[in-house]
Amino acid sequence: MALPPGIAFSPDHKVSLPSRFNVAVPFIDRHLGEGRGAKAAIRTRQETVTYAELAERVNRAGNALLAAGLGPSDRLLMVVKDCPAFFYLFWGAIKAGIVPVPPNTLLRADDYAYMVEDSGCRLVVYSSEFAGEIEPALKQLGAKAPRAMTVDAFIAEMAKASPALDARPAAPTDDCFWLYSSGSTGRPKGAVHAQRDMVVTSELYGVRVLGVTDQDICYSAAKLFFAYGQGNAMTFPLWVGGTAVLDDRRPTPDTTFEMIETFKPTIYYGVPTLYAAQLAALENKSRDLSSVRACVSAGEALPADMFRRWQEKTGTVILDGIGSTEALHIFVGNRLGDYRPGTSGKPVPGYEVRILDENGAAVAQGESGRLWIRSESTAKYYWNKPEKTAETMVDGWLNTGDTYRQDDAGFFIYEGRSDDMLKVGGIWCSPVEIENCLVGHPAVLEAAVVGHADDEALIKPKAIVVLKQLGSGDAALTDALMAHCKKTLAPYKYPRWVEYVPELPKTATGKIQRFKLRS
């Protein structure tokens, strides 16, 4: 499919955009001129929205925001479930020159009060399901609280607004939207993204790695409020003129299989936690996944054993990758023609990747170090966080905070967050390697490994395990898991303790919060 008019990529995958540009035009408006007005842009269990309807409603949303008193560069906090209104608000704001900020919809009142105050937003629009947290947050702020309305009330305002809206021009590097980081360590940080960023991720990963076309139907169990889900279920299909399938429910094996069987998506996006639960469900009942040509995973490293079991059960492969809020989407990923189970894949075209030691020097291939990346999709800065910006974004490079090594074939292997690494007997040890080994045992659904002091105050691995069958593990199972690790891993890496829990603490993106298990 040809690129939109005025947009080009060089042979080294650098983007060229007009000097005055609004990203809503190539993602929304151009589809009418290219004859897609009657095509389904969004499908849900309740409705179908065509590209013509989407374009009109985006315009009405932009005009309703302007009528509400918002102006250029003002922030709109939109706590909105996965539904068409998310698209209307997000793109309507951008087209009008307003900055949308869609935070995690699973947070609590204190978190929202912080984000409302931190962002300085002029308006909060929220799905009524979240009133129980949003309204106390606004009450907590008192006179400092901005105006707020439910999505239903905003839709009523849209109906009164004009269906015509001229896009407000901007420079490709001007502020466009924010995404708050998951806040796995401390308060969430507002990552400020530019107009060009969604173009870069949609073309370089969506088209050039996944091969997304206008014939694809994209369904993401990962939600729109964070970077991974936003690309999966909104920008990738809109970039090529495909169809997005949305579900506002919390994803479970039953709901996701139901959506796949009903809407026949060609690309399915999940996270390892969900894939594990789906595999457990498939042991009891087969499901029809024949429409899916590719599955994608991110958020946490996908164990090789899970990859193999999914392929055996479904006949499809899961393309694991690593991305971040700051990078906007996946920057190292596996591809359908070039994948290796248990790895994050290879760099996405246009993304520079390096692994550095603690002194900032490049490590030899095969050695571990901290992963740094550079691209045109990374956030410009953290809002109100100059020190964190200076620490994380250095000379155009982004410090991911992840420890990686690269194997002889060029595949990148995740070894955990840099602050999760363990030193056992003076040797650095990856918790992810031990976790992947444990998940390979037939009794284990999920596992997390953290450091724990023994009687001599020396740090050794401790495993926290979720079993496939409800109930607590016994001494015999603990011995079996230790033996399984000793047989598979270097001797010093086996867990000295095993604790059984019903679930692991995770961020909204599916990352295990190991710091909570260490406390």
Description:
By secondary structure, the chain is an alpha/beta fold. The protein has three domains: 19-170, 3-Layer(aba) Sandwich (Rossmann fold); 206-417, Rossmann fold (3-Layer(aba) Sandwich); 421-518, ANL, C-terminal domain (GMP Synthetase, Chain A, domain 3). Helices cover 32% and strands 24% of the residues. It has 15 helices and 28 strands. The strands form seven sheets. It has a nine-stranded mixed sheet with strand order 4-3-12-11-13-14-15-16-17, with helices on both faces. Strands 18, 19, 21, 22 and 23 form a five-stranded antiparallel sheet that branches. The mean pLDDT is 94.
Q: Would you kindly provide a brief summary of this structure?
A:
The protein has about 525 residues and is of the alpha/beta class. It has three domains: about 20-170, 3-Layer(aba) Sandwich (Rossmann fold); about 205-415, Rossmann fold, CATH 3.40.50; about 420-519, ANL, C-terminal domain (GMP Synthetase, Chain A, domain 3). It is built from 15 helices and 28 strands.
